[in-house]
Structures are given as structure tokens and as C-alpha cells.
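Researcher: Sequence recovery benchmark, item below. Answer with residues only.
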């Protein structure tokens, strides 16, 4: 593990302002030897313009200059730049500006010009330290702002692959690196047990290719990161564990960089948030998996009910050769009519099921009445008229058919109120039941029955039109013949 070391490179820019060329030359040598960038200006007015145009970290300024004094220069600069660090050089003790002025102009230090500049070097080093501290504070502030902006994004629900890509992008921009990858443990994702991997830059490869790239020593370091739950620093990169206080390590992020980001703590904070958001997506995937399972179970149960009912229906059809196939055709016509009214899928499904089961109640009617070819007497007819209620009762036993119970119960009601079993009128009859009624009547007329032969299409049409508005809903009749054409 390496310690982050304070970088001392030429990214510190120092401007020196003095009208004595000898002083500029000496300071040029000293500053460059200290490893900083040097800029010398001998005109105080020009110095003001240079600071306005370019960013400097530190200004070393002579006090006694022409045409304006050093404190005047500072006064001008402070009008537009509060950040630059300023050290004032004085020729003689008694020529220094008063302490009050030094303080009010935010001059960070002053010293006398001396032959060996030791005091000035100490002041420069201390100023540079302050500049670095200021930069670190600013980086932290910017980094925290970035985290505040990016974290809500990763908590928005999305696919795990999108999330990993987003997290990697954020971390790479925090650490200013170009090659990185993220790898998540074996978890059950969408029913599959697999490791998730996302790489950017040189790691933008398939998982298989990526595994080939890994050296044993690197794998060991990844393992160490996970067991220690700590950042591990390598020669060319950093391995961050993805974990939060409440969950175990989910995986790691590797950033290829030979510079340790100053804001390591921010990266750790972000990694904790990232791990939590990954865990959220994982939990969500488990919940939807459970939902899928429930859906499957529900569908299986539904199928079993349908099978059971199918047996009942076949019993009806077996009882009566004349009605065989009738229920399927009623369902077919009813759905056609429903579609022409632009009904939603749920309503169409109800029409189909109700069409299939509308006469299920007939299994409760005695065979000698059901199959009688002679004219039925009054009590026998009253018995037949019970089939909608008997059917409704059969279907009521199964909760999943509760929506079609009214359709079965009212399929023999008439608009004019002269239908059975309740004598409902007009809008009192559910709309879908009015559709079943037309489909049922049409198919009954166009099929052979034991007591009569089928009518031809034109005759059936005439009969239905003749009863439109009395027996049948006129809108349904109109739509039906619209599609029948
Ligand atoms: Fe019926």
C-alpha cells in the first residue's frame, strides 16, 4: 500500500513584480530551483493586467515601485481577485506599509529584501502549502457537490448494466482516469447466477477476454481488497471495494492511475453509495423474480380451473349434439363484435370466456326436458329458463369467473324487458351481456336444432334486424352486421 504524497510539481505559478532587474534575476533562479513556475514583471501596471488575464497562485511584490506603490497594486488586484496569495518585499523596515494596511489588503506576509533570501524561501514554502490546502478544500467541495448531483441518478431504477456503466463513468471522472472496470459477485440476476462485469478503455472487452487479462497476483489483490474491505493501492492503480455499512462486499472497482486522487475519501463515500444502489437493483430483481413466480403459479391455477370447467362444458356438448360447437362460435362472434366497439383486452377476454360458458347452466336441466322435441309445456319451459341462473351459480363457485357471472346470468334478457330470468330493461342489462345475446341468437338461428332446421343467413339477419331495439341492443346489431358483411 502506498501513501498519497503531496505533489510538488511545477503546477504552482508564481509572479514576481519588481522594478529592479537584479532582484528579478535572483528570484527567478530561486523559484525555479524550488520547482515552481516563474514569471517576472518589472512594471507594476503590467503586473495588474497579467494577473487579470492569467491565473497565478502566488505574487511576490516589491513595495517601493514607480509609478505606483506595491500596496496600490494589491488594492487594484483585490478588486477582481481575492484568491491569489501575496507576499510583499520591502527595502527598509521603515518603508513598509502600516500593519493595518497589510491586513486590510489581505497580504499574507512581508519580508525585507536580504542578500540570502532565506526568510523569503520559508515564506514561499509556507504559501505553497496554503495554496495546496486551499486546492484540497476546493476539490473536496467540488467533489461533494458532484456526489450530491450524481447520487440521486444512480438511485433511479434502471437495468444493472446501465447502472454499472453510470457508476464507472462517475468514479472515473472523480479520479481523472481513462481505464477502469467494475466487477460484481456471483448473484442471482434475473434467474441467472453470473458475475457482472463492465469495463471502459482497455478493459472494454467481454468477460471471457477480461478473465484472460487477469494475472494471478492481481486476482490476489482483488481478493485482499474484499477481505480487508479497504482500498488497495497498486503500482498502476487502485482497487476500491464496493460495500456499505449494512451489506457485505458486492464487488470491486479498479481504476488504472499512477496518481492517487487527493480526494480518496470522496471516492470511498461515492463507492458506498454505488454499492447501496447496486444492492437496491439486486433486491428489486429478486422481488420481480418472485412476482414472475407468482404469475406463473396463478396462471397454472387458472389453467387448472379452465380444464375443470372445460370438462363441464364437454359434458354439456356431449349431452346435446345439436349445440356442439355452439359455445365456441358464440365466443368467436362476441369477440368480433367487441373488437368492432374497440373494447380493451380485458373486456374481449370476458366476452370470450362468457361466450364459451354462457349455457353451462344447461347441465343442471333434466335430459327429458332439454332433449324434448315436442313443444315444451309451461313448467318445462320455466325449467329451461333457469339455465342462466344455474350457470351463474356454477361459475360463482370459482372466484376467477366472478367477472363473467353477470354476462352468463343476463344473456337471455331483452332490451324491452320481456326477457328472462329477471326481465331487466335497456341499460340495466350489462353491455357485454347484450353482445353475448346477439351472438347467441345469431348462431342458434344459423345452426340445426332438434326441433327445427337452420335458417339461411339472410333470413337470420332479417329476424335479428326485426327484433333490433326490442330483443336486441340496436347498436350491437348494427355493429354485428357491419362486420358480418
Ligand atoms: Fe342460453
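Model:
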Amino acid at each position: 500500500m502506498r501513501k498519497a504524497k503531496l505533489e510538488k510539481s511545477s503546477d504552482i505559478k508564481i509572479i514576481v513584480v519588481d522594478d529592479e532587474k537584479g532582484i528579478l534575476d535572483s528570484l527567478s533562479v530561486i523559484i525555479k530551483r524550488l520547482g515552481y513556475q516563474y514569471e517576472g514583471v518589472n512594471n507594476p501596471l503590467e503586473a495588474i493586467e497579467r494577473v487579470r488575464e492569467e491565473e497565478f497562485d502566488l505574487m511576490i511584490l516589491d513595495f517601493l515601485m514607480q509609478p505606483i506603490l506595491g500596496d496600490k497594486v494589491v488594492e487594484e488586484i483585490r478588486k477582481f481577485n481575492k484568491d491569489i496569495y501575496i507576499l510583499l518585499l520591502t527595502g527598509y523596515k521603515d518603508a513598509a506599509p502600516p500593519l493595518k494596511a497589510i491586513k486590510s489588503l489581505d497580504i499574507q506576509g512581508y519580508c525585507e529584501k536580504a542578500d540570502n533570501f532565506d526568510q523569503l524561501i520559508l515564506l514561499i514554502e509556507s504559501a505553497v502549502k496554503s495554496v495546496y490546502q486551499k486546492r484540497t478544500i476546493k476539490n473536496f467541495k467540488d467533489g461533494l457537490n458532484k456526489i450530491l448531483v450524481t447520487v440521486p441518478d444512480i438511485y433511479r431504477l434502471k437495468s444493472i448494466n446501465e447502472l454499472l456503466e453510470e457508476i464507472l463513468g462517475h468514479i472515473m471522472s472523480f479520479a481523472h482516469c481513462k481505464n477502469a472496470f467494475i466487477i460484481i459477485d456471483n448473484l442471482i440476476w434475473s434467474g441467472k447466477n453470473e458475475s457482472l462485469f463492465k469495463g471502459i478503455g482497455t478493459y472494454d472487452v467481454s468477460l471471457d477476454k477480461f478473465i484472460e487479462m487477469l494475472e494471478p497476483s492481481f486476482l490476489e489483490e482483488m481478493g485482499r481488497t474484499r477481505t480487508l474491505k479497504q482500498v488497495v493501492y497498486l503500482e498502476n492503480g487502485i482497487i476500491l471495494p464496493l460495500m456499505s455499512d449494512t451489506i457485505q462486499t458486492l464487488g470491486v472497482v479498479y481504476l488504472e492511475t499512477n496518481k492517487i486522487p487527493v480526494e480518496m475519501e470522496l471516492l470511498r463515500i461515492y463507492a458506498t453509495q454505488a454499492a447501496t444502489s447496486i444492492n437496491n437493483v439486486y433486491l428489486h430483481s429478486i422481488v420481480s423474480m418472485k412476482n414472475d413466480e407468482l404469475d406463473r403459479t396463478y396462471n397454472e391455477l387458472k389453467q387448472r380451473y379452465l380444464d375443470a370447467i372445460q370438462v363441464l362444458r364437454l359434458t354439456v356438448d356431449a349431452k346435446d349434439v345439436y349445440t356442439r360447437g355452439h359455445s365456441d362460435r358464440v365466443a368467436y362472434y362476441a369477440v368480433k363484435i367487441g373488437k368492432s366497439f374497440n373494447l380493451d383486452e380485458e373486456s374481449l377476454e370476458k366476452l370470450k370466456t362468457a361466450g364459451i360458458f354462457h349455457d353451462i347452466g344447461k347441465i343442471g336441466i333434466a335430459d327429458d326436458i332439454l332433449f324434448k322435441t315436442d313443444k315444451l309445456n309451461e313448467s318445462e319451459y320455466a325449467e329451461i329458463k333457469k339455465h342462466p341462473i344455474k350457470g351463474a351459480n356454477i361459475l360463482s363457485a370459482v372466484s376467477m369467473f366472478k367477472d363473467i357471472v353477470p354476462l352468463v346470468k343476463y344473456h337471455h334478457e331483452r332490451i324491452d324487458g320481456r326477457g328472462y330470468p329477471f326481465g331487466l330493461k335497456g341499460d340495466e342489462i350489462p353491455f357485454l351481456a347484450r353482445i353475448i345475446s346477439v351472438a347467441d341468437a345469431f348462431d342458434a338461428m344459423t345452426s340445426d336444432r332438434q326441433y327445427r332446421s337452420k335458417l339461411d343467413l339472410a333470413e337470420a339477419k332479417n329476424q335479428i334486424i326485426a327484433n333490433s331495439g326490442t330483443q336486441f341492443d340496436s347498436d350491437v346489431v348494427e355493429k354485428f352486421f357491419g362486420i358480418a358483411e
